[in-house]
Inverse folding.
């Protein structure tokens, strides 16, 4: 029994102490005031080193790490070389992912929508990426802040985004429509997408231009009137022989 206890006692002291070493990598693109590549090293959850693409030089964060890099210059050189290698590797991976998914500055399709003739005209953009877009109405080149109702940026099922902004056209005279336009700006793209306020371009819920609706109503009325006229003429012709026969019998009664 004494040997067994001694063995357990020795095993307790001989057991190894576990430590954790973790590295966190971060790659960005086009973000202001943030390095494109950052590496943070942690030992047992405590930060020991820091590296970014601006300085391209490891920075020790603990006293023992500072002493290690000072006493062992080769370790500092190795750390620097490995960080540079991973930096270029991550940049290559990000570029390949962009090409594969084709998700870099995808331009939208912009259309004008209107539920009814008295409803606001909605400028709707869909299918753009990333979700950093700006949309507004202009009059004579000046951005409008009154009579407009901007909407939020919403996600689509395919990973792209959509947004819209309404314009109240109840007080806009027909001759002033050409003075208005809708502008869409996408982050990272220099050219704006401009759409003129044009009645012939407006789509209703059924996908037809708004100016077709009154024309269709007029055509329907004309068609109904024509059918009614034909029915009246046919009815009179059908009644005419019977009336003539009755008049003949009245004028020439049988004796």
């Amino acid at each position: 029994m004494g040997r067994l206890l001694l063995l357990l006692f020795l095993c307790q002291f001989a057991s190894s102490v576990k430590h954790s070493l973790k590295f966190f990598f971060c790659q960005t693109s086009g973000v202001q005031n943030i390095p494109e590549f950052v590496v943070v090293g942690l030992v047992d959850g405590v930060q020991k080193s820091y590296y970014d693409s601006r300085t391209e030089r490891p920075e020790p964060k603990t006293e023992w790490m500072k002493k290690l890099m000072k006493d062992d210059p080769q370790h500092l050189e190795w750390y620097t070389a490995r960080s540079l290698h991973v930096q270029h590797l991550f940049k290559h991976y990000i570029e390949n992912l962009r090409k594969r998914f084709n998700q870099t500055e995808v331009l939208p399709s912009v259309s004008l929508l209107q539920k009814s003739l008295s409803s606001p005209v909605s400028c709707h953009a869909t299918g753009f990426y990333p979700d950093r877009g700006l949309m507004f109405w202009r009059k004579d080149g000046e951005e409008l802040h009154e009579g407009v109702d901007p909407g939020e940026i919403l996600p689509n099922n395919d990973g792209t985004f959509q947004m819209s902004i309404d314009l109240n056209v109840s007080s806009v005279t027909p001759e002033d429509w050409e003075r208005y336009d809708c502008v869409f700006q996408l982050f990272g793209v220099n050219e704006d997408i401009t759409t003129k306020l044009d009645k012939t371009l407006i789509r209703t819920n059924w996908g037809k231009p708004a100016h077709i609706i009154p024309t269709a109503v007029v055509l329907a009325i004309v068609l109904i009137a024509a059918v009614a006229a034909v029915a009246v003429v046919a009815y009179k012709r059908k009644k005419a022989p019977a009336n003539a026969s009755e008049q003949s019998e009245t004028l020439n009664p049988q004796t």
Observations:
- The longest strand covers residues 121-128.
- The two ends are 152 Å apart (CA to CA).
- Residues 214 and 220 are 10 Å apart (CA to CA).
